[in-house]
Amino acid sequence: MNFSFSNYQTENFFDEMFGPSGEIRPGYEHLKNKFENLTHEDLTNRQLATERALLSMGITFNVYSEGEGTERIMPIDIIPRVLSNAEWEWLEKGLKQRIKALNMFIDDVYNDQNILNDGIVPRELIESSKCFLKPCIGLKPPKGIWCHITGTDLIKGDDGTFMVLEDNLRCPSGVSYMLENRELSKQIFPDVLARTGVRPVSDYPTRLLQMLQHLADRPNPTVAVLTPGSYNSAYFEHSYLAQQMGVELVDTRDLVVSDGYVKMRTTNGLQIVDVIYRRIDDTFMDPDAFREDSLIGIPGIFEVYKKGRVALANAPGTGVADDKVVYAYVPRIIKYYLGEEAIIPNVQTYICGEEEDMQYVLENISELVVKEANEAGGYGMLIGPKATEEEHELFRQKIKANPRNYIAQPTISLSRVPCMVDGHAEGRHVDLRPYILYGDDISVIPGGLTRVALRKGSLVVNSSQGGGGKDTWVLY
């Protein structure tokens, strides 16, 4: 018996594959025809083959919230998500605008501080941010670039228009899943991929390497990926990207500061490293400059960086733009530096550090999503409509105790796409994390990681909270 979408329910959500009357949306026609020419057994076998391939490739992550680290595969749904060429070009333009302004903002807050002096962003907001690093004041990174790799999280609401949910400028992860999702699509649906006309993403490692090499002062620079180690939740990605770029994967045991340079231990002795793609949080990077208790950093590396003898991507201090309260000011930041309105809007945001907003949040917490300023991965968050009265009260007390540390947003019904569930299609909520590289120019990889809330009714897409992924097809 062939698979069919005939019983698929769009319900009261914006569905990206089907319109409210069940009509197929542009770009999904070939995909629908392909699926409906396959049997249930075919599709089940393809889904199982995908999961086996993920295991055999070692594409796993660790979940630490369960006591001991639990290693899991990233669940992948085999029905791709499709974005039109026009929609992507609009997104690309908006993301480039956002990254350009955020880079100018980071440079300003660590140097001239014009935006603070002019009162566009409150000075106390920046100076109280956990990610504002005083040792970075006065820094001038190579080529004037702070945020070399960004993963910006986007969502669609009821009207099907993209909005920015948050910015990730410290150590954004997930790009390895984007690349492997595409490789799996090529194996499962090579004919549909060709007929549909999908932009490639496989050149990401090449583009990443070119961007990193651009930061160096000499030709043929030595590039390395710095990992916290094999127990890190994203270690697979660190090793995968190093292997794909053809560069060394290093940790604290491999690097040393010697004669004023960062050097790598090799079988032929110490070798100077010119560029480091760091996958270590800022404050763990150098125990001499930041956290004395860090066991995964390289003592003295920050001093070498300040002297311009090594390039770091992303630059230390970029996390100040990751702060979820700073996020609320990004439209004003874009207007201040570029004289333009934000192309991609933010989600409406209430800043609990502002008295009127805090009062509204306290009174309407059952209808809102409340987030801690510097948490990630779906942690430190309250989804009001799904929480208990006790949880509401707990968060009210947290907000009153430290209002600066919280924002709130309306509970948005994220758009949905069909997913394979027990042999048939059911709608699940999704977001999108495109990856942006900033080298000699700003480039947006045509696709990104679509994250899926695989639990029925869930709005949380993070892999550590039961989410999964999909391949994202951007059409020519």
* CATH topology (fold) name of the domain at 351-410: Dna Ligase, domain 1
pLDDT < 50 runs, ≥5 residues: 64-68
**Biggest β-sheet description:** 5 strands, mixed
Principal-axis shape equals globular
Structure description:
This is Circularly permuted ATP-grasp type 2 domain-containing protein. Residues 80-453 form the Circularly permuted ATP-grasp type domain. InterPro entries: ATP-dep_Glu-Cys_Ligase-2, CP_ATPgrasp_2, UCP005522. The chain has 476 residues and is α+β, with helices and mostly antiparallel strands. It has a domain at 351-410: 2-Layer Sandwich (Dna Ligase, domain 1). 30% of the residues lie in helices and 22% in strands. The chain has 14 helices and 23 strands. The chain has helices at 29-36, 40-57, 85-109, 114-117, 123-127, 175-188, 190-196, 204-214, 235-245, 301-306, 324-327, 330-338, 355-363, 389-401, and strands at residues 60-63, 70-73, 76-83, 149-151, 153-156, 162-166, 223-226, 248-250, 255-258, 261-266, 269-272, 275-278, 311-313, 350-351, 368-372, 381-383, 406-410, 416-421, 424-433, 435-438, 442-444, 449-452, 468-474. The chain has a 5-stranded mixed beta sheet. Helix 3 crosses helix 12 (330-338). It is globular and about 70 Å long. 45% of the residues are buried.
What keyword list fits this structure?
Dna Ligase, domain 1, five-stranded mixed sheet, single chain, alpha+beta, 22% strand, 30% helix, four-stranded parallel sheet
Brief description of this entry?
By secondary structure, the protein is an alpha+beta fold.
Map the helices and strands.
Elements: H1 29-36, H2 40-57, E1 60-63, E2 70-73, E3 76-83, H3 85-109, H4 114-117, H5 123-127, E4 149-151, E5 153-156, E6 162-166, H6 175-188, H7 190-196, H8 204-214, E7 223-226, H9 235-245, E8 248-250, E9 255-258, E10 261-266, E11 269-272, E12 275-278, H10 301-306, E13 311-313, H11 324-327, H12 330-338, E14 350-351, H13 355-363, E15 368-372, E16 381-383, H14 389-401, E17 406-410, E18 416-421, E19 424-433, E20 435-438, E21 442-444, E22 449-452, E23 468-474
Parallel strand pairs: 3-23, 7-8, 7-12, 12-13
Antiparallel strand pairs: 1-2, 4-20, 5-6, 9-10, 10-11, 14-17, 15-16, 15-17, 18-19, 19-22, 20-21, 22-23
Helix pairs in contact: 3-12
